[in-house]
């Protein structure tokens, strides 16, 4: 079996995808890479400690090519990117990384006959997109650099599949909730930070309005979706890139209410960030993922209640462990 390369592996998704891939395929089959010189996994023992790690700047095409050839890579999960809020602050850097990096990955895949997973996002939609039950194929006119790069990435991945036969596949991820990695500059980061603040301080100041409804997904479901899609029979895939997937459509107020069932003294306040609120208001409130359910049997395992219970338990254990290690 040819090996799997994960770019941007030290980020929110990679921190959980890499261990899952190593468990599924074997630790020696997965190459973890990131722009950090030394791996700093937030979950020690699950990631880089049990497999190869490579320093990789995806904007450097030859560096990427060397790693793909040296490790005989057959599949690339390309996660390296700036997230929505950070990309809006640094649009030129975001374009260079998010698009330039993807181009280099697709070129390496073309030359070396690799399959590619590219994560798109609900950020690929815009204010003129239907916001409820957003269709699989619909208007995509995003108003952020992050979204522009995601739409462009979807089109470029499709082009490489049609023009060069690259086996490129992807999903449009909703907001992701994970206990492993801390927030990294996304508009939906409130749904991660709220758990840490609730467990530590029983208080959270949210940067979105209480009624801001967005699609969300618990990271274990997202990781499973990525692996399942890459294992799916290609003849069954009618869209290949950018399948809509969803698990729950929630507001900060609804999430806070659910947390209060486990932490009764929890209090939420709202200090709205105009930039992130504007981004959220341009995204879908819910998406239609019937195409993914039909083509490769996608179905989430966690709803709001199950996710909240699991997150609180895992965040508590993580914080307790960190406290005991510093004593």
Report on the structure:
The strands form four sheets. Strands 3-2-1-4-5-7 form a six-stranded parallel β-sheet, sandwiched between helices. Strands 6-8-12 form a three-stranded parallel β-sheet. α1 (14-25) packs across α7 and α6 (190-201) crosses α11 (304-326). It has eleven helices and 14 strands. The longest helix is centred in the C-terminal third of the chain and has 23 residues, at 304-326. The chain is globular, with a radius of gyration of 19 Å. 43% of the residues lie in helices and 16% in strands. α1 (14-25) links the parallel β1 (3-7) and β2 (30-34). Mean pLDDT is 92; it is low at 42-49. It has 327 residues and is of the alpha/beta class. The N and C termini lie far apart (45 Å). It has two domains: 3-174 and 218-244, Rossmann fold (3-Layer(aba) Sandwich); 182-216 and 248-284 and 303-326, Alpha-Beta Complex (UDP-galactose 4-epimerase, domain 1).
Describe the structure concisely for a colleague:
The chain has 327 residues and is of the alpha/beta class. The chain has 2 domains: 3-174 and 218-244, Rossmann fold; 182-216 and 248-284 and 303-326, UDP-galactose 4-epimerase, domain 1 (Alpha-Beta Complex), CATH 3.90.25.
